[in-house]
Amino acid sequence: MSLLEGIRIALGSLIANPLRSFLTLLGIIIGITSIIAVISVIEGLNLYVADKLSNLGPGVFVVQRFGLITNHEDFIKAFRRNKKLTLADADAIRDRAVLASAVAVEVHASDELKVRGESVRNVDIGGITADVLEIEPYEVESGRIFTPAEVDHAVPVCFVGFEVAERLFPLVDPVDKSLRIGNREFRVCGVARKRGSVFGMSRDNFVKIPVTLHQRIYGLRNSVNISVKAADPGNMQDTMDEVRLIMRSRHHLAYADDDDFGFMSADGLNALWANLTRIIFRVAVFVVGISLVVGGIVVMNIMLVSVIERRREIGLRKAVGARPRDIRLQFLIESVVLSSVGGAIGITTAWLLAMAIRTWSPLPAAFPLWAPIMAFLICGTIGVFFGLNPASKAAKLDPIEALRADG
Fold first, then answer.
1. Residue 207: which pLDDT band, with cuts at 50, 70 and 90?
2. Is 70 part of a structural domain of the chain?
3. pLDDT band of 69, cuts 50, 70, 90
4. Which residues, 6+ apart, have CB-to-CB distance to 312 below 8 Å?
5. Does residue 98 sit within a domain?
6. Of 204, 236, 260, which residue is a domain's last?
7. Domain total of the chain
8. Where are the alpha helices (DSSP H) in 190-323?
9. Residue of 163, 195, 154, 159 whose CA lies nearest to 175
10. pLDDT at 290
11. 123 pairs with which residues across the strands?
């Protein structure tokens, strides 16, 4: 019996009993749809995180009070131990880190903006140094960022996000217009290019002001973030080690003491995210695997029923010369085709679901090309594994007894 003939018979059986076939394949359809939908969302999130959240630029890392902490116990220890970082720490790194090409500072607060009676609350007010644009990806849409002299003299100028400009200065150019932050007047010197949102949260709702003026307004209680750019991006680890020595020396830490500060880099964020998604994927595979096993059992059950219903056909085939291995192959092909059709429906459903998620929700979704291949391999394995027993039973049927069967 040829492979094409076996596929033709299997498809004919599916078409002849559409409702039974659909109910048989429901478990596999649900399982394949679920696992590919999860893969699509995770793949989309991985690309999203790499592009939007961990895009610090090549050779860039940030020195923070806490860094990347993954559990509550470590955070409590770090909160008690780690010191707030200051402008003096940034100056020390700038003066002593020979492997760093640029050092910038940023500190955050939240406040209300007002323009001619219009107001926007809970806007992120970031105090930065002028060289932050050499390190962080803030692109200028119009105007300019403030100068080092304006930072040194705490001049009341501000660089606003695209959303702030749209909401407070509709239909007019915000550059050189007045803006009130809290109780102080500022002059808008530039507008940032639109950056979009992350999980539905805007990345354009911010105002940047000189860090010196920020500390005059909001005080010195907030720890600063120190962004460092390695002169050679391929030498970033050595640059981090150099900065670590400078910070440990400034904080008078003994050799056995833990760091009282932390680092954040694109590689660290991506590694943390990869570990998180790996756990999510394993849990999802375990849960979805139950559905696939149930689907496989249903396929085996319907194949056993098919063997009973088609005993006369099996006996006739054996009577005209079909060998046991031909019968076994026929039923294995039918089992694999049955599972693969369920997989194809599941893949199509998952693709439509991924497109719907990407279109109508803040979650990103990317449909990887390898997912359908993996799905068909899973379905083929299910077809072979759960079809082997019915195929063996069919192959062992006595042709004379089979021909005597009713129907």
1. very high
2. no
3. low
4. 402, 403, 405, 407
5. yes
6. 260
7. 2
8. 211-218, 236-250, 266-309, 311-319
9. 159
10. 82
11. 111
Backbone angles phi, psi at 7, to 5 degrees: -65, -40
**Same-domain pairing of 294 and 369:** yes
Q: How far apart are CA 321 and CA 6, in angstroms?
A: 16
Residue 407: how many CB atoms within 10 A of its CB? 8
Residue type, 276: L
- Which amino acid appears at position 207 of this protein? V
Q: Is the pLDDT of residue 10 over 70?
A: no
Whether 30 and 105 have beta carbons less than 8 Å apart is answered as no
Range of the domain at 282: 3-51+271-403
Q: Are 145 and 133 in contact (CB under 8 A)?
A: yes
308 contacts: CB under 8 Å, gap ≥ 6: none
Same-domain check for residues 22 and 89: no
Strands of 3-148, DSSP E? 60-64, 100-115, 118-128, 140-143
Mean pLDDT throughout 220-225? Answer: 84
- Residue 390, pLDDT above cutoff 90: no
Whole-prediction pTM: 0.60
Q: Are 128 and 211 in contact (CB under 8 A)?
A: yes
What's the pLDDT tens digit per position in 272-297?
Answer: 777 777 777 778 778 778 878 888 88
Does one domain contain both 230 and 348?
A: no
333 lies in a domain? Answer: yes
Measuring CA to CA, how many Å separate 123 from each of 223, 289, 320, 406? 19, 45, 83, 80
* pLDDT surpassing 60 at residue 52: no
Residue 327 pLDDT class (50, 70, 90 cuts): confident
Q: Say which amino acid occupies 241.
A: D
* Rg, C-alpha atoms of the chain: 32
pLDDT at site 246: 92
Looking at every residue in the chain, the average pLDDT score rounds to: 82
| One domain, residues 93 and 43 | no
**Residue 72 domain-assigned (yes or no):** no
Residues 113 and 160 occupy one common structural domain: yes
